[in-house]
Design brief:
single chain, 170 residues, mainly alpha, 10 helices, 68% helix, globular
């Protein structure tokens, strides 16, 4: 049976964010709804996945917090995700969640994969998120440093600009 959130996301066409903004305001980002967005991240309908991850990112940006169980569920779905917009939304979520040691490797692998992404903004934010993950999990410091070195010579200005902000502590 489809959840109310999944049914509502059927109206999202991938272009008009006003539908997502309405859903952001309509649904309360409690643990149940946040868990649904994580599960919908891997939905077969890419528009539902994109909408769900945009909502997750927006709610986290506005102060919602994932429980450790939901973070664990997110770690499990990350390897199967391929859509560039879903990846971008989730890369932006990583600094907003507490990643405990048992799940840090999954998040690090995900971020390293995204550092090679098609979209410059995906690469830029993946480097940023990997750096931030390494601040909490020192075992990723060397890989984060290598990714930052690669970002310094990335052909996309947005990647180099994000690196500059990382180095400035922003």
């Amino acid at each position: 049976m489809k959840s109310a959130l999944e049914l509502a996301l059927l109206d999202y066409d991938g272009k008009h964010a006003d539908i997502l903004k309405e859903l952001r305001d309509q649904f309360v980002p409690n643990a149940s709804v946040l868990r649904q967005t994580v599960r919908l991240a891997g939905h077969d309908n890419v528009l539902i996945a994109q909408g769900a991850t945009w909502l997750l990112w927006t709610w986290l940006t506005n102060g919602a917090r994932l429980t450790p169980h939901i973070v664990a569920e997110l770690a499990e779905v990350l390897p199967g995700l391929t859509d560039k917009w879903v990846l971008l939304h989730l890369v932006r979520c990583v600094p907003l969640v507490t990643v405990e040691a048992p799940h840090a490797d999954a998040f690090a692998r995900f971020l390293q994969r995204c550092c090679e992404g098609e979209l410059p903004f995906l690469r830029a934010w993946a480097v940023d998120s990997l750096h931030r993950l390494s601040l909490d999990h020192a075992k990723f410091a060397a890989v984060a440093r290598r990714r930052m070195e690669a970002a310094a010579v990335d052909p996309a200005p947005s990647v180099r600009k994000r690196l500059e902000k990382i180095l400035q502590g922003r």
